[in-house]
C-alpha cells in the first residue's frame, strides 16, 4: 500500500471513522482505492461502497458524531458529503464485489479487478481524465482490457449494460481533454494514456 496518496488530514478522518465503527461493512473503491495500491497519483476522495441498502439519515447522524457534515447530494443509496475537509461518499453498489478486498489502516480496500470493472462503468457514463489515467495504470500492472470485460460479465450478470457502448466510450476523450491531469506521483503524459487505451481497444476489437 502507498499511504502517501492521502493527506494527513484524510488519514486522521479515516482513523476517527474506523474507531467509531462507521466503516464496518464498507469497501473503499474508486480512484483512491486504486491509488493506495498502485501509488500512481494523489487522491482525496473517499468513495465507500456496499451492495446492501443503507439508511442515509442514520448515516448522517453517525457522521455528525465525528464533526460537522456538509451534505452535497443525498438520494436513495447515495450520500455525498464533506467531512473534516474531505469528500466522503457512501454508495450502494450495483452488485456484490467479486473479491474480499484488503484490510489497511481501518479500511477495507477493494481488489484492483473490482475497481477496474467499476472504472469501465464510469467511463461508459462520462469518462473523466482521472478514470482514463487509472485504466492506463491498470494496463501497466498487467490487467488487460479483455480480463476487465470478463470480470464485468461475472459481476454484473443480469444487470443491463451494453459492451459495444462501453468500448466506444473508451475511445471518446472529448470531455477528458478539457480537464487537467490529476496530481500525479508517477509521471505519464496524457498522450501516452490516450494512445495506450486506443491500442488496448483495437487489440480487443
Keywords:
205 residues; alpha+beta; Beta Polymerase, domain 2; 2 domains; five-stranded mixed β-sheet; 7 strands
Describe the structure.
This protein is α+β, with helices and mostly antiparallel strands and 205 residues long. Helices cover 47% and strands 16% of the residues. The protein has two domains: 3-109, Beta Polymerase, domain 2; 112-204. The chain contains nine helices and seven strands; from the N terminus they run αβαβαβββββαααααα. It has a five-stranded mixed sheet. The protein has a two-stranded antiparallel sheet with strand order 6-7. A hairpin with a 2-residue loop joins β6 and β7 (107-109). The longest helix has 15 residues, at 112-126. The chain is globular and about 50 Å long. The model has no long low-confidence stretch (mean pLDDT 95). GO terms for molecular function: transferase activity.
- Radius of gyration equals 17 Å
- Structural class of the secondary elements? alpha+beta
N- to C-terminal distance: 34 Å
Mind telling me the CATH class of the largest domain? Alpha Beta
Largest sheet data: 5 strands, mixed
Order of helices and strands: HEHEHEEEEEHHHHHH
Q: Could you say how many structural domains there are in total?
A: 2
CATH superfamily of the largest domain: Beta Polymerase, domain 2
Architecture of the largest domain, according to CATH?
A: 2-Layer Sandwich
Helix percentage range:
40-55%
Amino acid at each position: 500500500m502507498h499511504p502517501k496518496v492521502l493527506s494527513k488530514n484524510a488519514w486522521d478522518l479515516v482513523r476517527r471513522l474506523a474507531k467509531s465503527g462507521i466503516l464496518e461493512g464498507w469497501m473503499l473503491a474508486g480512484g483512491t482505492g486504486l491509488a493506495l495500491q498502485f501509488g500512481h497519483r494523489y487522491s482525496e476522495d473517499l468513495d465507500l461502497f456496499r451492495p446492501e441498502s443503507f439508511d442515509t439519515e442514520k448515516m448522517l447522524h453517525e457522521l455528525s458524531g465525528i464533526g460537522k457534515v456538509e451534505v452535497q447530494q443525498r438520494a436513495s443509496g447515495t450520500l455525498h458529503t464533506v467531512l473534516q475537509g474531505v469528500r466522503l461518499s457512501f454508495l450502494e453498489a450495483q452488485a456484490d464485489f467479486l473479491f474480499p478486498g484488503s484490510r489497511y489502516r481501518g479500511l477495507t480496500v477493494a481488489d484492483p479487478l473490482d475497481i477496474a470493472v467499476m472504472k469501465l462503468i464510469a467511463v461508459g457514463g462520462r469518462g473523466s481524465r482521472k478514470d482514463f489515467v487509472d485504466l492506463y495504470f491498470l494496463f501497466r500492472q498487467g490487467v488487460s482490457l479483455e480480463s476487465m470485460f470478463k470480470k464485468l460479465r461475472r459481476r454484473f450478470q443480469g444487470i443491463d449494460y451494453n459492451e459495444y457502448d462501453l468500448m466506444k466510450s473508451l475511445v471518446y476523450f472529448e470531455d477528458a481533454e478539457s480537464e487537467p491531469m490529476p496530481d500525479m506521483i508517477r509521471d505519464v503524459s496524457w498522450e501516452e494514456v490516450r494512445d495506450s487505451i486506443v491500442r488496448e481497444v483495437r487489440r480487443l476489437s
